[in-house]
Amino acid sequence: MKKLNYTFSGWFLLAAVLNVHAQKTAPVSKDTATVSKQFEVIATRAEEKSAMVFTTLSKKEIQQTNLGQDVPFLLNTQANVVVNSDAGTGIGYTGIRVRGSDPSRINVTVNGIPMNDAESSNLYWVNTPDLASSIQSVQLQRGVGASTNGAGAFGATLSLQTNEINQKPYAEWTTGAGSFNTQRNTVKFGTGTINNFSFDARLSQITSDGFIDRSAVRLQSYYLSGSWFKDKNLIRVNAFSGREKTGQAWYGVPTDSLEKNRSYNAAGSYFENGVEKFYNNETDNYQQDHYQAFWVHQFSNKMKFDVALHYTKGRGYYEQYRHQEDLSNYGSGPAFVGQQTLVDTLGNSTVVPADTIYQTNLVRQLWLDNDFYGTVFSFTYEPNARFKLVSGGGLNQYVGDHFGEIVWSENSNLLAPGSRFYADNAKKTDFNIYTKATVDLTNKLNLYADVQYRNVSYDFLGFDADTLPLQQKSTLNFFNPKAGFNYAISKKSRAFFSLAVGHREPTRDDFTQSSINNRPKPEQLIDYEIGYRFNTSKLQLGVTGYYMDYTNQLVLSGEINNVGNYNRVNTPKSFRQGVEIELGTTLFKWLDYAGNIAFSKNKIQKFTEYVDDYDTFTQVPIVYNNTDISFSPSVVASSTITLKPCKTLNIHFITKHVGQQYLDNTQSEDRKIDAFLVNDIRINWNIASKKTTIVDFAISVNNIFNEKYAPNGYTYGGLTGGQRLNYNFYFPQAGTNFLAMLSVKFQSTNN
Fold it and tell me: How many structural domains compose the chain?
């Protein structure tokens, strides 16, 4: 794959050539701000009267925390959120859990367009580096949330909005540096509105060696956006792309290395003469290009229609060194090496192979080449302030090719470089349509209703009833109703209640690593939410109680299915229940406080674990009752104290506590993640703020007390001699480290 070379100095000079200080622009239409506001994705977002719990972060709030880490780390202080990073720094492969739900259960959209991978339902943020620099706002809905496009929301919905019309020309340069040789450069510029046109661009590059050994990341990205608006129409086209090359750090650190060598990485490990060595190109390489086109038409002040077309192209591979792999796994017979001469009793000689080899060392690449495209749309009708109706949906299709290639092998005569040892493809079609309405029955009582129909069709290479490979197709239909009410107790306080149903299909591995006879069923969630909100200029209080009732939730049990895989299985009943308390207050003009705490109980009512017996080559079932769901801490808390010595300087003291978590669903003390408490300090300083020039500086010192902690991990094990062996692996985060940022923005004074 070609390497992208972004020359920041050249782009910055281009922005300077625009002479944004003096450039004259055409008078901005009075409708510009209105059109920009109306273009926001409101169809899939919650609003003030919505009967659900959500948080919306503004562009300013995002910019204050955006020092180069991925989007999940910008949400670290939100209620009931736990984030993690493979490399230990928040850059590269990162993840987020909300209410204990993993990333595959969190629906993510950008401008209303689905972002989750169609097959795994995960979102790999490493493929969209520095996307935060182009985000206008982020909304996090906890629970099922409102109907949206794409993957089923089983823990949260994350809506990102990038579309913004900048009325004035500007140019901005951001540079940053930090621990582990972290460097960041971002250039942005925009033309402002010129005769109803506007254009914005961003180029970014982020590099870091990472805390974990050989976890270096090299990230490059761009974002381009152009818009045209006139009268009651707006057309906008976005193109953004990310390219990543990262060292593989997804193996985790074994328990015995946590104390002595917390940065140990087993990726590419092999031994030569008793000395451990590492393959030097154990990397992940991927590029993802996104194209979005929007048309918004305002029929009147009461009616609006918007439609979008989108296309995402992804391609890349990860490379691995494999020690003594069976040749049969790569479609090859044994290799015959050398020659020897055999002489029989009559003196006749025969030449035969000296040795037969069934295994070899090799280097392989596992490839993915995929396309995702479709359309999303919505129609909004708001005849008056008391009633609002939104109807919308989407039709999206994914086509993915999976294949593996040999790069090198010791016996290259059998496994030639470039030869493929597997190839399969998959196609997934996702259609949904929804209608939601809010109505004010009285001046205080607002009712909310939302219904969605979703159809998922997946065509893939799997196993038939006789465990023979066979191209198959599975079609699933989901009906997801939601309803609730919002009651205004006073102008400052409100209460709400909602009942929502969600469904989620199995992932690619669930389909392809099982047969028709033991394929997992879809998951169902019934989400009950009740909340209270109090809001004044100096005090914001929120209390939310929830009960999430799961049917057929998919979990790993250790059971080997009839095609020889450790596949996930449906557990009949499980639940999450808890209360989330959020508080924000201005104590003095120079002191603010914001914090939240979540208490929860997350249980599987009955769980059967299957443990491998290494002596008998069988599996031993063990039944558990009322155990904790894995990776679901019962306490998650966050606190931010902000000192404001002057108008231009903010000092934030940030504390994050996460209670203990279990690595599996057995609630075993031998397989858990310890609770941790991490403290950070962030300083935001507005060095200069003039009409034409804004200079901001920020520095964050993370984990100031050098806490040794790991928010994520995994486990496996078995029985030998009647004793249980546990192999636990963790993803430790960096000790005390820092990130710093300097941003300079030039903008025109023309209106």
Answer: 1
